[in-house]
Design the sequence.
């Protein structure tokens, strides 16, 4: 199964925030969209960074409430791990586990195509296992 199949189910809409936005604005966007990370982008097409709840909480613990007035650029992760729609879900799952990351932007030719979360990966993996299990069950019980 490929990353593209996940995007086919969940869609390609990506919530983004500009690097000059405040952390408070990013928090409001996270809440509004019910998500755990925003792609940081000046133009909505290129990945300049990623800011997650984890990034914000860590800075909040270090710097206190003043971090809410900081720019997103000050708290974001600038070195972003990305993937391609042609990567397999197994490859992506291994990458996310190894790097301990929960959100991976999907990029083609430097342009943002979507975002895959660990929840999306688990959901796709479970769906694949259920389908495989059903096929095995049908084969055993009906011979086809």
Sequence:
């Amino acid at each position: 199964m490929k990353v593209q199949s996940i995007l086919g189910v969940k869609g390609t809409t990506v919530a983004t925030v500009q690097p000059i936005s405040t952390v408070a604005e990013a928090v409001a966007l996270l809440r509004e969209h019910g998500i755990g990370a925003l792609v940081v982008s000046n133009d909505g097409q290129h990945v300049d960074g990623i800011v997650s709840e984890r990034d914000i909480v860590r800075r909040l613990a270090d710097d206190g409430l003043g971090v809410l007035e900081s720019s997103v650029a000050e708290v974001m992760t600038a070195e972003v791990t990305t993937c391609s729609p042609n990567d397999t879900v197994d490859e992506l799952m291994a990458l996310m586990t190894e790097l301990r990351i929960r959100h991976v932007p999907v990029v083609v030719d430097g342009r943002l195509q979507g975002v895959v979360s660990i929840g999306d990966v688990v959901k796709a993996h479970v769906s694949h296992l259920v389908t495989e299990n059903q096929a095995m069950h049908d084969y055993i019980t009906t011979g086809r």
Q: What stands out?
A: The chain has a mean pLDDT of 92. The first helix runs from residue 3 to 10. The first strand starts at residue 16 and ends at 17. The domain at 3-142 is CATH 3.10.580.10 (CBS-domain).
